[in-house]
Amino acid sequence: MQQHTNHLGLSHTDRPPERHRLVQKLQSITDLTAGERQALLDLPMAVRSYTKGEDLVREGDVPSECCLILDGFAFRYKLLPDGRRQILSFHTPGDLPDLQSLHIQTLDHSVGVMMPTMAAFIPHKSMRDLTERFPGLLHAFWRDTLIDAAIFREWMIGLGRRDAHERIAHLICEMLLRFRGVGLAPDDTFKMPVTQADVADALGLSNVHVNRVLMDLRRERLITWSNLTITILRWEELQKRALFEANYLHQVSKVAA
Amino acid sequence: MQQHTNHLGLSHTDRPPERHRLVQKLQSITDLTAGERQALLDLPMAVRSYTKGEDLVREGDVPSECCLILDGFAFRYKLLPDGRRQILSFHTPGDLPDLQSLHIQTLDHSVGVMMPTMAAFIPHKSMRDLTERFPGLLHAFWRDTLIDAAIFREWMIGLGRRDAHERIAHLICEMLLRFRGVGLAPDDTFKMPVTQADVADALGLSNVHVNRVLMDLRRERLITWSNLTITILRWEELQKRALFEANYLHQVSKVAA
DNA sequence: CGCAATATTGACCATCATCAATTGGCGTGG
DNA sequence: CCACGCCAATTGATGATGGTCAATATTGCG
Questions:
Q1: Residue range(s) defining the domain that contains residue B35
Q2: How many residue pairs bridge chain A and chain B with CB atoms within 8 Å of each other?
Q3: Rounded average pLDDT over B10-25
Q4: Which of A29, A65, B141, B174 lies 20 to 30 angstroms, CA to CA, from B185?
Q5: Same domain for A129 and A102
Q6: Where in chain B does DSSP place strands (E)?
Q7: Does B163 touch chain A (CB under 8 A)?
Q8: Who among B80, B100, B138 is closest to A161 (CB)?
Q9: pTM of the model as a whole
Q10: Is residue A111 located within the same domain as residue A204?
């Protein structure tokens, strides 16, 4: 996830090797038949590259395609008129952060990237054809939407009822499991390409306070976080600090192929 | 919505007249064919009544049926180990607050009621048969899930980045539009059967602070709120106070039949 | 080597939580 | 019909978590 070969900003239009990420992702939440897998690989997609600070889509857009993260790291967010920002979710390769655009005309949030990221755009029409030919995939996408919503709910609990230490510890726990789920967290270490200010906007805190709490967690030898790289030192203790319960991730604890 | 005829706790098993609420709700977010409407009305459902404080389902349950609010007022919530509570959403008649159980085995939150409420339970098997026979309904349910998630996102912004006055004003704006959408807010007045403590748990505040902010909003003559009844006095001003933008509700501004 | 973005620290302050009464509304039993 | 009791609303006093502002270090990188 952390490195990829092409981020020159060029726009290709064909079969990037990373397209298997989508299969991998869906397979992590449901079973797919060979035919469904092939159909996913055959989806037409236009690939584009982005760098830190660019948006894949913006609030207010009326997209005619869905975007798929092939490589990199993206996030959904929304701005208030005066500039306050709330980050709604983080997305790793294989995710479809605006799947909702299939059914909801105008986008109610933006999708940006935190690092050089490659995204593929799949026409809505192709998605509709696909789900018509393969009802199993329709269920897979619906299931994905439902898990997405479950994660929103857990974040709401954090924003509404957890204190700063719990929130930050909780986010770290969640990201560890999500990266583990796609085989990207060997030795309880993973790359988290976000700044402390980003974390602040995700958790409803100020950057300054995030910094202070991180110092605490480091002092307590629960984690290490530098160079965009996080290492969990004491997993049990960290979960306790976060009041973390993994069930909401609905992971089908099976290692991605 | 505020009154209903039977809340003796009896369990019927047949065709309550309120079952049309489901049709009404789905029709408010998509178009249905006559066949689809009839199929919805023919769904088998077991009706049960609940009173304030009772739960329809609990976190950890593995339901084999979906619940449908026929009459009354329900909410989804989750508790932290030490008793802190976060309310995740409010639900009016026609809503299916645990639709997700169709695809996600174990429930990650509870559903409770705020007032005498009648709910119908529809076996998952019936739902699956239904969506198999009527793919249009499958899309309708998916769309419902997506709108649900859109509301979660808006609440996340409130919890993370709005101050107490904005949050409360925003909730009032949202509920007005939702009640209006089902024809239950004549004269910008509607019944909101929640206590100030409930509002606090929905917005991540303390009951005391909710009270103080409500006093402010009343002093400013923006609203009236007593006896579980809210009246909006100055709609434009209230929206401004809340930084409210209705788009996220994705309402198809058409009056329910 | 020097910029520019992040991270870190300190000082001060505001919003909102907590704790503790007190008041008010309303249903129920006598 | 009225008193009691309970739940919710209201108010006051006090304090803590976390925000804001402003420097000062670091670190990554061209």
A1: 11-148
A2: 124
A3: 74
A4: B141
A5: yes
A6: 11-12, 46-50, 55-57, 65-71, 74-79, 85-91, 110-113, 117-123, 189-191, 223-226, 229-232
A7: no
A8: B80
A9: 0.92
A10: no
Residues B172 and B68 in one domain: no
Residue–nucleotide distance: A209 CA to C12 C1' (Å): 15
Terminal Cα-to-Cα distance of chain A (whole angstroms): 15
Classify burial at A81, counting beta carbons within 10 Å of its beta carbon; exposed 0-12, middle 13-18, buried 19 or more: exposed
In a domain, B6, yes or no: no
B150-207 tens-digit pLDDT: 999 999 999 999 999 999 999 999 999 998 887 889 899 999 999 999 999 999 999 9
Under DSSP, is residue B230 helix (H, G, I), strand (E, B) or coil?
strand
Same domain, A241 and A185: yes
Q: Does A11 contact strand C, using a CB cutoff of 7 Å?
A: no
197-236 in B: which are within 8 Å (CB) of A?
201-204
Q: Which of B81, B135, B247 sits opposite A108 (nearest CB)?
A: B247
Does residue A15 share a domain with residue A125?
Answer: yes
Instruction: Look at residue A125 and tell me whether its pLDDT is greater than 50.
Output: yes
Q: How far is B21 from chain A (nearest CA, A)?
A: 22
